[in-house]
Amino acid sequence: MLQSLFLAAIGDAKDRGAKALEAFAYRYPEGESQYERFRVHRTVFPTTFLTDFGFRMVRSQGRVELARLDLGGLQPVPEPLRTRAVRRVKSLLAPAPVPQRP
């Protein structure tokens, strides 16, 4: 449930034109319970939780880190000229469709 809420918040920020999100993360000791991670420290996310969503650590002080998620998104890659030419030649050399009889 927390993951879907977090994804919705990321999507909302992107829809509103945000370029990036930043959050504070905390590196918990190995074996720390889920209760400690999400109930006791309500304003700081576990580092592993944020890295699962693509956040990268910008700076740290002790166990606290500043994490950033750039929301640039996917950039379209132009189709190479050769690929376009091959597709065009194939469409020109394809046999004409056979007319259907009534």
Strand order of the largest sheet: 2-1-4-3
Shape: elongated
Major sheet details: 4 strands, mixed
- Rounded mean pLDDT score: 80
Alpha-carbon distance between the two ends: 57 Å
* Structural class by sheet pairing and helices: alpha+beta
Low-confidence stretches: none
Q: Count the beta strands.
A: 4
Q: Into which percentage range does the β-strand content fall?
A: 15-25%
The number of helical runs is: 4
The value of Rg in angstroms is 24 Å
Q: What is the share of helical residues? A: 25-40%
What does this 3D model show about the protein?
A hairpin with a 2-residue loop joins strand 3 and strand 4 (64-70). A 4-stranded mixed sheet has the order 2-1-4-3. The longest helix is centred in the N-terminal third of the chain and has 14 residues, at 2-15. The chain has helices at residues 2-15, 34-40, 47-52, 81-93, and strands spanning 20-26, 45-46, 56-61, 64-70. The chain has a domain at 2-70. The mean pLDDT is 80. The protein is of the alpha+beta class. It has 4 helices and 4 strands; from the N terminus they run αβαβαββα.
